[in-house]
Amino acid sequence: MANTISAQKRVRTTESRTEINRTRKTRLRHQVRAMRRLLESKDTNAAAALIPKTFSMIDRSAKWGIIKKNTAARYKSRITLRLRKLTAKA
Q: Does residue 2 surpass a pLDDT of 90?
């Protein structure tokens, strides 16, 4: 257990930040999962409507440090490619 006052504060801060980060990561994963489900169901209109919200969530997560910037870029690239394939077939 932490002995100094500053170490005790760091423990409290870390616990609260961990909870916030966990919530943000869960929201990101749910958003990406919803987008992938729309792409798998080949619903191009709904997927196109959801893409700005998904990209915004991905970018904010990268900014907050929940995911790395390259990971965010990879997510966005793959989602975009899958959406383009669907619209090209339709």
A: no
Which residues form the domain of 47? Answer: 5-89
DSSP 31-80: HHHHHHHHHHTT-HHHHHHHHHHHHHHHHHHHHHTSS-HHHHHHHHHHHH
Residues in the chain: 90
Contact predicate 47/38, CB 8 Å: yes
The residue with tokens 């504060």 is 9
Report the C-alpha dihedral over residues 15, 19, 20, 23, rounded to 10 degrees.
170
- The predicted model scores a pTM of 0.88
The CATH number covering residue 30 comes to 1.20.58.110
Using one digit for the tens of pLDDT, what is the confidence trace for 36-53?
999 999 999 999 999 999
The CA distances from residue 47 to 16, 39, 53, 60, in Å, are 34, 6, 10, 20
